Amino acid sequence: MKTQITELVEKLRASGEDAGPHCDLSSSSVKSVKAPIPTELYDQLKTMSLVYQQDLNCIAGELLEVALKEALDCFTDDELDQLETVRKAVAQEEAQRHMEEQRYDAGCT
Predict the structure, then answer these.
(1) From the CB of residue 48, how many other CB atoms can be counted at a distance below 10 Å?
(2) Which residues contact 46 (CB under 8 A, 6 or more apart)?
(3) Mean pLDDT throughout 57-80?
(4) Helix, strand, coil shares, percent, the chain, to 5
(5) What is this structure's pTM?
(6) How many other CB atoms are found less than 10 A from the CB of residue 53?
(7) What are the residues whose beta carbons fall under 8 Å from the beta carbon of 43, sequence distance 6 or more?
(8) Distances in Å between the alpha carbon of 102 and those of 27, 29, 65, 98?
(9) How would you classify residue 3: left for phi > 0, otherwise alpha for psi between -120 and 50, otherwise beta?
């Protein structure tokens, strides 16, 4: 049985000469993350991007996505429920903050 990482590496190998950024880097359905990694691993990531002619951020994002999905599979149902509760609370707070920022006050100058 192939792992998701194995499938990702096979996809990189198959990308060939016509490769370019094949991932979404700017839409509202994605968020960029700045994460520290050891220099040696960063150098390997950069090398992969050059060899397979893929955007470094695309490769890193795909690797992180697979890792996060695998990590979530390790949580218990209770932990997943707690994570979901906190996620919903944060989303609600962000929505409220956005609404307050958008409120128009005609009396202000």
Answers:
(1) 16
(2) 56
(3) 95
(4) 60, 0, 40
(5) 0.76
(6) 14
(7) none
(8) 21, 21, 32, 6
(9) beta
